[in-house]
Structures are given as C-alpha cells and as structure tokens.
Design a protein that fits this description.
19% helix; alpha+beta; 62 residues; five-stranded antiparallel beta sheet
Length: 62
C-alpha cells in the first residue's frame, strides 16, 4: 500500500554505511511497518503488516 505517513519517526539500519541509497523504516500504529527511500523522504512510503515484515526480514537473513 502506498501512503503518506507524516507522524512516522523514520530511521536507517545501524548496518547502513552510506548517507544515500538507504531504506528507512518506521514502526507504525497497529504494528504496521513503514518503508521508504531515503533519497526521497517526502515521497510515498509502503506499509507492511507485521507478518509481511517478519517474512521479509527472515528471507533476507537466509
């Protein structure tokens, strides 16, 4: 889902070494997770359910 999230508090991973080309994440109400491109902080964001986020993070660890 594409959405505007003005109340979100965005952060980059502590493993991120650069200032550009990063993904930012925000923990949202109801357990939702927001994801956006750090190069376009005023652009749209994607939101994921907790289950979708868990599946994604588990797959990138493998």
């Amino acid at each position: 889902m594409n959405t505007d999230l003005p109340e979100a508090h965005w952060f980059k991973s502590s493993h991120s070494s650069g200032q550009s080309e990063c993904v930012e994440v925000a923990w949202l109400h109801d357990g939702q997770v927001g994801v956006r491109d750090s190069k376009n902080p005023t652009g749209p964001a994607l939101t994921f359910s907790p289950a979708e986020w868990d599946t994604f993070t588990a797959s990138i660890r493998d």
